[in-house]
């Protein structure tokens, strides 16, 4: 969700009937494509679609490159747009059918709020974005909600990591406990089996004796005693069998508990892999640790070994709260800092004027719009200026990019 919102557009004329044909993704404003594809289709679906359609990426098969390419082709490649729409409809069929029953923008906004509370973001997001009655204000609302939700998910990542570590320790303890229970269970079973065999032999012997003396009237009293003993032995055997069944039930319960714990651990491990990607978005918190009590912090790295020799470094995009630290970083390295926000608030025409004084251009690919990236690359080629795409918007990544400017006199990125 790194695309920058364009200026607000007027709402469409009166609400459309829900019976009208729903929109394909290429019929939806391209400013929403990044949020739709990034939220409503997993990366595995995009990879599968790319393989099926024979799409190869010159910039490499990374997840970000695949996402960016699909966002670009969704607006200009009709076959890709139709395939994306088909996969989105199939994956979120239930939500699409539910939202298709309403016909006004207000009803769509209400259903979206309910779905957001339930956590059904992906299906409801696509259902509203592709609904013919949805206004641009409603689509903008969905974009903002999804954007904020991604931030909130990252805030829980560390807690999930701690919980995962605790569950792993509990799993080890449960496994050890089950091993002890199984060992004790086997010993108990062996002892019970031996007792049962002794009881069966005694029962067989008692029954034999009872049959031998049953016909003798003089042995009637003894026979009754033997019969009583047989009943007692049978009762003991029944009790032993009941204890055996209870022990077996406890073993099955312990095994089921371990299986459930393993499944939960696997699920949390998968969730943690997704959340780990989001945690990197919060690298900006590093800047807070660099700020002293009485003002802007100084650079924490050993900048003395970097000398930009007075070069003017133009930063395009990035997070606004980081720019004070980036300025300090450049100036401490004997450079001149210049910045353009990539079209968030500043006009893109101002970017042309900044290129005249810039010696190198840096931009974080995760915090600048696709259109701004394309504009920077085109201007760099026109002005024959070197540029360095920075993979992440963090001070450590910016410092590494400045090192390439100092050491290599940065080569043109692509």
TrEMBL record:
Report the InterPro entries cross-referenced here.
UCP020408
Region Disordered, as annotated, extends over 238-260
The source's superkingdom equals Bacteria
Family in the record: Belongs to the UPF0751 family.
Species, as recorded: Telmatospirillum siberiense
Q: Which Pfam families match?
A: DUF2325
> What are the alphabetically sorted keywords of the record?
Coiled coil
Q: Where is the composition biased (Basic and acidic residues)?
A: 240-249
Name the UniProt record assigns to this protein = DUF2325 domain-containing protein
Which positions are tagged coiled coil? 157-184
